[in-house]
Design goal:
It is a single chain. This protein is 50% helix and 16% strand. The protein is elongated and about 80 Å long. A two-stranded antiparallel sheet has the order 1-2. Strands 3-4 form a two-stranded antiparallel sheet. The protein is an alpha+beta fold. The chain starts with a helix and ends with a helix. It has one domain.
């Protein structure tokens, strides 16, 4: 594993966690959206992370010569949560059905805040790893002085 591989892994984690925080923010912002362009209530979105594959020519050659595949993490998909909507009795709401129920999004703000804290901690851990590699490189350069 080279010095730059460590930075690339941390960088990919930073990018993935930032996107995860953006999706969570969108979920929180739409927690009470009862009508979307698709016609129904907002559906919670989830980020699917997977191991990054280095499909570039240099990445493939590097993995062949070193028997390693160092890729980091990537967002493989953003999917909609298919859990049921929450019916809320509100007969005065224009989106209410004949029985007075409004279908609310399947977003739980408490769960979203827990996910946001998890993503934030992962982001901080990646920054710490990035800074540790940077400090090691600086110390290695200081040895040569």
């Amino acid at each position: 594993m080279s010095f730059l591989d460590s930075l690339n892994i941390s960088g990919s984690a930073l990018t993935a966690q930032k996107l995860r925080m953006d999706v969570i923010s969108s979920n929180i912002a739409n927690a009470s959206t009862t009508r979307t362009d698709e016609g129904g209530p907002y559906r919670r979105k989830l980020v699917v992370l997977s191991e990054a594959t280095n499909d570039s020519f240099s990445g493939v050659m590097n993995s062949l010569t070193q028997n390693e595949n160092i890729g980091g993490v990537e967002v493989s998909a953003i999917v909609e949560d298919q859990s049921d909507f929450k019916p809320v009795y509100d007969p005065d709401n224009p989106a209410a059905d004949a029985n007075g129920y409004v279908m609310m999004p399947n977003v739980d703000t408490v769960d979203e805040m827990v996910d946001m804290m998890s993503a934030s901690r992962s982001y901080e851990a990646s920054i710490t790893a990035f800074n540790a590699v940077k400090l090691m490189a600086t110390k290695a350069l200081d040895i040569g002085r």
